């Protein structure tokens, strides 16, 4: 039964990974930008929440109301005034810009918040759960994370499939030159896509901060998880990202069941296995594209 | 009434002059055919008008408004619709969604109005039966139709057609000719680049012949096709027979 428990915990953890990876997947899908600062930006969101709790009489969850719009605005401005300029200069330029942003963010956070590990306090919710049997229990916080992840992914999927702006976003992702002949300002679509990506990574960053401790240098380690979730699931597919997050989460918790030291390693091994056996991702048909 | 005025357009690709002082005026309800050998700068001319390319000199004016500094998407919303010579559908979207994107963004329409415009554009181009197919699965000819459908869905007052007739069978061409005549009759200003000159002369009010970026003849179709300069340019690249007469 401890194995069943490991799988259940892995699925719950996978929800958080999927939520975290969504922004990376979206930015790559729409703009073909690989955002190397993705992990650091999620840490920035967690520190913003931390500072808000410090300054205001706010509950950790309530900080989302301020942190998410702030990060979305940051994403919009970053795309409009920084990344957009780099897009015309070849594939390497936006990669270097986000890499530079990653370095800058880590150092600014270090300067402002010191290298100490922090955590966002959520009281008893962090440990409360439902015991299903002797060894299988479900933590409420994990269920909440998975629920938020599914809600965000379903919402995003509906937005892309059903709304005019979502259709414009899919068309822009397909061919950014031709959409201009359809009257679409691709720069506006890009800025909005980045804002959405930053909003989702802000939610994930704050939830990560509630789950475990964070410090200014942890971003790149997290980025790897987002990459793995996106690649395991298949690039450019939102459902794939959810599946990829869950697979990664389960791999890590099952690995930890064997030995705590194997947790991260097991995730990497599954990732490598997918790259070798199914490089298009587990949810993408081989013939696609 | 819509009037497109192109004045002194000039553009270079490296050392190559691809548009050299091109000027003309086109009123609503009129159709202009553009002919010329390969590499004459025909598609470049449409790109300069649609905004995909910026000229080094010269202006594009729509209804008295100088749009030269406007981006391609703004020009589309102002009423300039363009089709690509090589179709570029949004492959992951359905045929209907392709037209819907155009109607929503380019035509500025919402919900029901956008749906109507998109479905009218599909009806007009005979694509209704493929409405829910992914555009990436369409064969070439239907992709060309989709180019036209999308341009129409943006609700243009000026329509730029880039060799949409190539590869059509004679009956298909007949339908296309009637469609374009209908559009012109509905008050659109049409610019049509086409190698199939007999189709062109059935539709257009005037003909413009380009060679190495320059206008070498412009006017009545029969006069243009009969002119010595045009004959010389086409030397070795035989014009279709029986068109001048």
UniProtKB/TrEMBL annotation, chain A:
The keyword Manganese does not apply. InterPro entries: ABC_transp_permease, BCAA_transport_permease. GO terms for molecular function: transmembrane transporter activity. It holds the Pfam family BPD_transp_2. GO terms for cellular component: plasma membrane. The keyword Glycoprotein does not apply. It comes from the Bacteria. Its main location: membrane. Coiled coil: none annotated. GO terms for biological process: amino acid transport. CDD domains: TM_PBP1_LivH_like. This is Branched-chain amino acid ABC transporter permease. It comes from Paractinoplanes toevensis.
UniProtKB/TrEMBL annotation, chain B:
GO terms for cellular component: plasma membrane. Residues 4-237 form the ABC transporter domain. GO terms for molecular function: ATP binding; ATP hydrolysis activity; L-isoleucine transmembrane transporter activity; L-phenylalanine transmembrane transporter activity; L-valine transmembrane transporter activity. Keywords: ATP-binding, Nucleotide-binding, Transport. One of its GO terms (biological process) is L-alanine transport. This is ABC transporter ATP-binding protein. Pfam families: ABC_tran, BCA_ABC_TP_C. It comes from Paractinoplanes toevensis.
């Amino acid at each position: 039964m401890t194995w069943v428990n490991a799988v259940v915990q892995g699925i719950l953890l996978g929800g958080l990974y999927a939520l975290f990876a969504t922004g990376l997947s979206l930015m790559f899908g729409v703009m073909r930008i690989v955002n190397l600062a993705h992990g650091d930006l999620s840490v920035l969101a967690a520190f913003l929440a931390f500072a808000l709790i410090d300054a205001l009489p706010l509950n950790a969850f309530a900080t989302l109301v301020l942190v998410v719009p702030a990060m979305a605005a940051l994403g919009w401005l970053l795309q409009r005034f920084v990344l957009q300029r780099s897009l015309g200069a070849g594939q390497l330029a936006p990669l270097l810009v986000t890499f530079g942003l990653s370095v800058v963010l880590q150092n600014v956070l270090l300067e402002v918040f010191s290298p100490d590990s922090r955590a966002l306090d959520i009281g008893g919710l962090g440990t409360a759960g439902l015991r299903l049997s002797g060894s299988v229990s479900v933590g409420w916080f994990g269920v909440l994370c998975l629920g938020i992840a599914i809600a965000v992914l379903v919402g995003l999927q509906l937005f892309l499939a059903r709304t005019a702006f979502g259709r414009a976003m899919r068309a822009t992702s397909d061919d950014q030159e031709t959409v201009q002949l359809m009257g679409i300002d691709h720069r506006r679509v890009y800025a909005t896509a980045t804002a959405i990506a930053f909003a989702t990574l802000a939610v994930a960053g704050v939830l990560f901060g509630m789950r475990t401790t964070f410090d200014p240098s942890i971003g790149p380690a997290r980025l790897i998880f987002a990459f793995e979730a996106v690649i395991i699931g298949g690039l450019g597919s939102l459902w794939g990202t959810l599946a990829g997050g869950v697979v990664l989460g389960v791999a890590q918790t099952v690995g930890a069941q064997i030995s705590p030291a194997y947790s991260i390693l097991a995730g990497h091994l599954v990732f490598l296995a997918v790259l070798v056996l199914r490089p298009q991702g587990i949810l993408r048909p081989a013939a696609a594209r | 009434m819509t009037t497109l005025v192109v004045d002194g357009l000039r553009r270079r690709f490296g050392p190559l002059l691809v548009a050299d002082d091109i000027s003309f005026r086109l009123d609503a309800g009129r159709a202009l055919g553009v002919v010329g050998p390969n590499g004459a700068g025909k598609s470049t001319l449409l790109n300069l008008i649609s905004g995909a390319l910026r000229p080094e000199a010269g202006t594009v004016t729509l209804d008295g408004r100088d749009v030269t500094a406007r981006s391609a998407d703004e020009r589309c919303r102002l009423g300039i619709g363009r089709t690509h010579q090589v179709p570029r559908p949004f492959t992951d979207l359905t045929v209907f969604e392709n037209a819907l994107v155009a109607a929503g963004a380019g035509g500025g329409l919402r919900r029901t109005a956008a749906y109507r415009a998109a479905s009218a554009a599909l009806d007009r181009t005979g694509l209704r039966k493929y409405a829910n197919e992914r555009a990436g699965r369409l064969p070439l000819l239907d992709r060309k139709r989709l180019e036209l459908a999308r341009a129409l869905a943006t609700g243009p007052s000026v329509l730029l057609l880039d060799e949409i007739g190539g590869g059509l069978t004679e009956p298909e061409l007949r339908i296309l000719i009637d469609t374009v005549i209908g559009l012109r009759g509905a008050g659109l200003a049409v610019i049509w680049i086409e190698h199939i000159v007999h189709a062109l002369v059935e539709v257009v009010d005037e003909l413009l012949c380009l060679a190495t970026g320059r206008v070498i003849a412009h006017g009545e179709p029969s006069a243009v096709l009969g002119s010595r300069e045009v004959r010389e340019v086409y030397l070795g690249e035989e014009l279709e027979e029986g068109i001048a007469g």
